[in-house]
Amino acid sequence: MRYRFIKAHDETWPVTVQCRVLGVSTGGYYSGIARPNSRRLLDDDRFTPMIRRIFEEHQGRYGAPRITEELRALGQRINRKRVERLLREMGLRGKQKCIALLQDAARQKPPLSSGSHAPRVEETGVGHGPW
Known about the structure:
Blueprint: H1 2-8, H2 15-22, H3 26-34, H4 39-57, H5 64-73, H6 80-90, H7 100-107, H8 121-124
Helix pairs in contact: 4-6, 5-6
């Protein structure tokens, strides 16, 4: 991550200054950028457009579990945690159901029907103790 930042800003600031500020040796930087990308990074680059396409196809309603299922149905071997990380890195987040209205409706007590009344303590016998 640091190497990419240094590479992206090497025209703005000297590499040696950036390495000192970020706590990286200049030799480590130059050997790091000379190495080929890791398999994980290459796979991430391959999965990112697939994940974005599935996310947009479903209007942002699919989160990591459903996207993982879709990718597996397409024959891709991928873990849910990787999908979560890539979604986070892309700044994508699945829409959540608005369950607050459903919860409020469930909490409300049904109205008493006309002509009925709530039983009193004397009628139920509840609340009377030996005291």
